[in-house]
Amino acid sequence: MRAIETNNLTKKYKDVTAVDDLCLSVEQGELFALLGVNGAGKTTTIKMLSCLTAPTSGDARLLGDSVVTAPMKVKEKINLSPQETAVAPNLTVRENLEFICGIYGITKEEAAGKTEDMIKRCSLDEIAGKKAGTLSGGWQRRLSIAMALISEPDILFLDEPTLGLDVLARRELWEMIEGLKGKVTVVLTTHYLEEAESLSDRIGIMAGGRLSAVGTAEELMKKAGKEKFEEAFVVLCRGGSLS
Ligand SMILES: Nc1ncnc2c1ncn2[C@@H]1O[C@H](COP(=O)(O)OP(=O)(O)OP(=O)(O)O)[C@@H](O)[C@H]1O
What we know:
The chain has helices at 42-49, 71-77, 93-103, 108-121, 137-149, 167-178, 193-199, 217-224, 229-237, and strands spanning 4-13, 16-26, 31-36, 57-62, 65-66, 78-81, 155-159, 185-190, 202-207, 210-215.
């Protein structure tokens, strides 16, 4: 069974078609990156796949369940780390994680163990007792992803995980995301081409709400007839043919 399978997934706002007839599949354990210029439809796609907004038409199945007819089942299997880091600034890192455990109905005793596990797994030890609001952007993103992992999702959506981070913080977050490879299906959106190229198994390029190409970075460069990924991206954004 595929992790994600979309069939003609479409989202229209009044006079804008944000996502247009999207047909895409992602395998279990895959790290899939959605690339595209501003307004290409990446965030809207993630929102439909994570049941935050309903499609106008079409459907998507996540591990077999439809976002249209079974959104509650889908929500049990997924989690999202949104563009805006959603940590509680006055709680410590540990308290933020315990708070999320509470939301999922995990008992206090279990929550303590789960929180410590997550602190170790996401290498948050050195800042576990610090208030989240005092942390750098990189640490806040790392905490935000740890919070999304508490529910042990099969599929994790990361919307622009490294937006605004400096080069070092970005590299550290890449290592964390790479550590998820093969264990969790990850779909991330990004504007950083090198992020998609070095992290992901496959890349989908969106332009004008449509998927203009999909494949490994190598395949996309071959398809565009370019040796550099950035050049391939420009060609494919400007309407390279569908693969
Ligand atoms: N709630 C909304 N109401 C009206 N139009 C919207 C809404 N959300 C998104 N859009 C429009 O849909 C299109 C796709 O937007 P979306 O945010 O999905 O793109 P994106 O690829 O994520 O862009 P960015 O890289 O800038 O975040 C844009 O034209 C946007 O203005």
